[in-house]
Amino acid sequence: MPSWSEILDEIRSLPINVRGTPSYDFESVLKKYINRLSKYRNRNAIIYYSDWLNRAKGPNIEINDQDMEGFMNACCGIDKGKGLDLILHTPGGNPLAAEGIVKFLHKTFGPDIEVFVPHMSMSAGTMLCCACKCIWMGKQSSLGPVDPQFSGIPAYNIKKEFEEAKKELAEKPDTFRSWQLRLDKYPPAFYYNVLDAIRLSSNLVRTWLREYMFKDDPARSKKIQSIVTALNANTGSHSKHFNSDDCKKIGLRINGLENDDLLQDAVLSIYHSLTIMGSLTLMCKMICNQSGQIYIVNGLLQGGTR
Questions:
Q1: How many Cβ atoms are within 10 Å of 170's Cβ, its own excluded?
Q2: Handedness of CA 291, 65, 155, 275 (dihedral sign)
Q3: Residue ranges per domain, the chain?
Q4: How far apart, in whole angstroms, are the C-alpha atoms of residue 1 and residue 267?
Q5: Band of the pLDDT at 302, cuts 50, 70, 90?
Q6: pLDDT of residue 174
Q7: Which CATH architecture has domain 4-146+209-305?
Q8: What is the pTM of this model?
Q9: Which residues on adjacent β-strands are paired with residue 239?
Q10: Beta-carbon contacts of residue 188 (< 8 Å; ≥ 6 apart)
Q11: d(CA 296, CA 178)
């Protein structure tokens, strides 16, 4: 398996791409490795990659409704009967946007969807994983809690702040002014939106596990409840990492990337290519398929295809 530095050397060895601003031909290397995965598995391969580990948080880093354009582009003109291998690297984002993506992909490919996590798929990304038949993870891979976020703030933390305000105001009414200043940062009825988001995340994960990952499992009810409880618990950190062993323990259907050297090679080579492209360009998000149809979001710009 080529390492990150070896793939960088491969990119640098190619002729300079002079279309627009001169640059390395990242795309030819990326397409080669996506094709390798697709041919090896005889399945469609779609990448959803966010360059969030290299960049500050922003509206285009997280899962949002704009992503549907990228998935529509990636699903155009491919053989839907071959099923889908979805490669995910994301910090998460909007649960409603994730719900839209799940509905679209299942209407397009049916139930035959497997997901690969080469490094991290957090929050709403973990929710997407729960909508697949199985999750492929390596020793380095992580999922995360599915508690929703509001502008980067965990919903549970917001809920806790309101609960603390209610308790302290009942005991110390003279703290009203200080709490007013703290809570005025939230719009009207925001607290109820937070509660709704927490309930929604649990309900979506529960529904998707029942309909997709454990559809034919007669013991699914107990498994699903255990998984939902573990993933939507307030652990004190939205950044908590669940590695592959943790995910197996809570009951998720996990396959090990290390069990297939060729598969691991293909998946990690795709990931390395993307991280290099992210570090050397303005790209902050990419959605791409094995046919080379690419949807890119650059910085704060809108997405574009080629």
A1: 8
A2: positive
A3: 4-146+209-305
A4: 10
A5: very low
A6: 92
A7: Alpha-Beta Complex (3.90)
A8: 0.85
A9: none
A10: none
A11: 45
